[in-house]
Amino acid sequence: MNIEDCCKIMEDAGVKPTSIRILVYRTISQLHDTFSLNDIEELLSSVDKSSIFRVLRTFQNNNLIHSIDDGSGSQKYCFCHKYGSCKTEDRHCHFYCEICKKTYCFENDLIPSIVIPDNFKVKEINYIIKGICPECQKHHEQ
Ligand SMILES: [Zn+2]
Ligand SMILES: [Zn+2]
Ligand SMILES: [Zn+2]
Question: Which residues surround ligand 3, an ion (CB under 5 A)?
């Protein structure tokens, strides 16, 4: 993703494009699956963790990333491929591997639509499938 596109996406989402935000956004746009604060810290070792945390919080507030609760206790996020304009029905399912603790994005598997009773206000929907990923199954067989 070039810097120009990146700035445009942020402005459309209501986020002021600062250099650190651009750096973080371009980094996460290349990831295929969910990521944690620690993952980004490892990828961007020159940036301090609290700054990355603040950037992720801003992105989350503006829907540029979504928080995923996979039950592992560590906060994970996934990159919004609709650049902040997705609706609840566009959200996809995730697969949590109980061995490597990685959470995969199943981009093509959308969360089944559920009829929510009146007067309940939905804030977040998580659809997590738990099991063992292909990588870990390979190691298991050896
Ligand atoms: Zn989204
Ligand atoms: Zn695994
Ligand atoms: Zn995802």
Answer: 78, 105
